[in-house]
Amino acid sequence: MAADGLASKALKVKRELGENTPLLSDEELMGLSVRELNHHLRGLSKEEVARLKQRRRTLKNRGYAASCRVKRVCQKEELQKQKMELEWEVDKLARENAAMRLELDTLRGKYEALQGFARTVAAHGPPAKVATASVITIVKSGANQAAYS
């Protein structure tokens, strides 16, 4: 009982300093563990205890909401960064695809020119002597025709 008398005496002193001033600052109220808070609230009226506990809950909820907003902003920034990286990768792959299609068209033209030459040789018999330059010319001209088609 002597300890209770001292605690209530200390609280009365705090109240006498200013009736409307809070017993605990917001930082103190949020920083206290439940056990410490209950220790500080001993001797107060039920209404005062309820008011302080509600104030603590409100402050904690504000903190949670603020951290949630920060987390959401960070997630949004991270997702935007990932989106930009993926868009860059899609552009890069589109360029590679276009280059490969061009190379494929070139190779297809060369293949068709060689097939045409092979059909000509098969139909008319092998020529007495075929110059390498003429085969290259046929291949090049076949590729050019494919490019202009």
UniProtKB/TrEMBL annotation:
<keyword id="KW-0175">Coiled coil</keyword>
<dbReference type="GO" id="GO:0000978">
    <property type="term" value="F:RNA polymerase II cis-regulatory region sequence-specific DNA binding"/>
</dbReference>
<dbReference type="InterPro" id="IPR008917">
    <property type="entry name" value="TF_DNA-bd_sf"/>
</dbReference>
<keyword id="KW-0804">Transcription</keyword>
<dbReference type="GO" id="GO:0000981">
    <property type="term" value="F:DNA-binding transcription factor activity, RNA polymerase II-specific"/>
</dbReference>
<dbReference type="GO" id="GO:0005634">
    <property type="term" value="C:nucleus"/>
</dbReference>
<dbReference type="Pfam" id="PF03131">
    <property type="entry name" value="bZIP_Maf"/>
</dbReference>
<keyword id="KW-0539">Nucleus</keyword>
<comment type="similarity">
    <text>Belongs to the bZIP family. Maf subfamily.</text>
</comment>
<keyword id="KW-0238">DNA-binding</keyword>
<dbReference type="GO" id="GO:0045604">
    <property type="term" value="P:regulation of epidermal cell differentiation"/>
</dbReference>
<dbReference type="InterPro" id="IPR046347">
    <property type="entry name" value="bZIP_sf"/>
</dbReference>
<keyword id="KW-0805">Transcription regulation</keyword>
<dbReference type="InterPro" id="IPR004827">
    <property type="entry name" value="bZIP"/>
</dbReference>
<dbReference type="InterPro" id="IPR024874">
    <property type="entry name" value="Transcription_factor_Maf_fam"/>
</dbReference>
<protein>
    <submittedName>
        <fullName>MAFF factor</fullName>
    </submittedName>
</protein>
<feature type="domain" description="BZIP">
    <location>
        <begin position="51"/>
        <end position="114"/>
    </location>
</feature>
<dbReference type="InterPro" id="IPR004826">
    <property type="entry name" value="bZIP_Maf"/>
</dbReference>
<keyword id="KW-0678">Repressor</keyword>
<feature type="coiled-coil region">
    <location>
        <begin position="42"/>
        <end position="110"/>
    </location>
</feature>
